[in-house]
Design brief:
Elements (H helix, E strand, L loop, with lengths): L2 H13 L2 H8 L3 H15 L4 E4 L2 E4 L1 H22 L11 E6 L1 H6 L1 H11 L4 E6 L2 H9 L5 E4 L7 E15 L13 H6 L2 E4 L4 H12 L6 E5 L2 H9 L5 E4 L4 H6 L3 E3 L8 E9 L6 H14 L7
Parallel strand pairs: 3-4, 3-5, 7-8
Antiparallel strand pairs: 1-2, 5-11, 6-9, 6-10, 6-11
Helix pairs in contact: 1-2, 1-3, 1-4, 2-3, 6-12
């Protein structure tokens, strides 16, 4: 089992596509496909269901994912303790982020960080929400980005609220209806994030409060996989507004307005261990976040 195989597996799951994983890793798509095929052979199980527009984890893949993620994190963390590493500890800021925020929010934050503090180098780990908290609590990272999780040892600060929006295939009947009630949306085949995610729990809470049992047909582990399946007309879904701007502009997905009583908001927060608040690198990151989000509307 090689590092490149595990890296390709994690990146393909994160992106929902071998092609997108290859682009991120600067290798060919065939290289990613071959690495994962060899990994599957060694494990004796298929890790992905392959579709024309992307890939989705199998049950075996979901079981293997947390171990693969932790292995990558441990190896990346080990690089930071090597004395010859280009970034000295004094100039290194370590960040853990959920996958959705890491894809659609963190790049802009890092761009601002580079402009305002060019001497700092960021080391980023993309993990699940619970793992973000664990990494901050255990002081493996200095900054966590996730959706409103709390812990007594962690200072959780809200950055902004974001709508979870309803998306459909452009030909869906909801597109021409105007405002759609959550009751109607819950009757449709729903494609949602994995059951332990904050997105799923929030949608489940909204449906429970309305006395609705949602018709959940598919659960996947990435927003990219959700979008691909909705584009194929396999169902509808709720995703963060920031994640579908490109697809709506291209016309491959339609954003359907929910009625005012069905609006769903989710908070994005920064997490810092209470003992790290005086760290100058943490202060620099908080300054960047304040500059970006202090004038942002309460929801967007």
């Amino acid at each position: 089992m090689e590092f490149s195989q595990i890296q390709s597996f994690v990146e393909a799951e994160r992106r929902g596509s071998f092609r997108k994983a290859a682009k991120t890793l600067y290798v060919s798509q065939s290289a990613v496909s071959n690495r994962i095929r060899l990994l599957e052979t060694e494990l004796g199980a298929e890790l992905f269901y392959r579709f024309r527009n992307g890939v989705v984890l199998t049950e075996a893949g979901r079981a293997f994912l947390p171990y693969a993620t932790r292995a990558l994190y441990a190896l990346n963390e080990a690089k930071q303790v090597v004395p010859t590493n280009r970034a000295s500890g004094r100039n290194l800021i370590t960040i853990a982020s959920t996958r959705v925020l890491g894809t659609y929010t963190l790049p802009n934050i890092l761009n601002h960080l580079k402009k305002e503090y060019p001497e700092l180098t960021a080391h980023v780990n993309i993990v699940r929400s619970k793992e973000v908290v664990d990494l901050v609590v255990n002081k493996h990272v200095q900054i966590g980005l996730s959706r409103g999780l709390v812990h007594p040892d962690v200072d959780t600060r809200r950055l902004f609220d974001e709508d979870l929006v309803l998306i459909t295939h452009p030909s869906h009947s909801f597109v021409s209806m105007g405002n759609v009630d959550i009751n109607d949306a819950a009757k449709e085949p729903l494609i949602l994030y994995s059951a332990e995610s904050s997105y799923f729990l929030l949608i489940e809470e909204v449906c429970n409060n309305a006395g609705i049992t949602p018709n959940i047909e598919i659960r996947v582990d990435s927003v990219d996989s959700i979008k691909s399946m909705v584009e194929m007309g396999l169902g509808i879904s709720f995703v963060p507004r920031s994640s579908i701007q490109k697809e709506v502009k291209q016309g491959t997905l339609s954003l359907v307005q929910l009625g005012p009583s069905s609006r769903v908001l989710i908070s994005t927060c920064v997490l810092i261990h209470r003992s790290e608040k005086s760290n100058p690198r943490v202060k620099a990151m908080l300054s960047v976040l304040e500059n970006i989000y202090s004038k942002r509307p309460a929801s967007s």
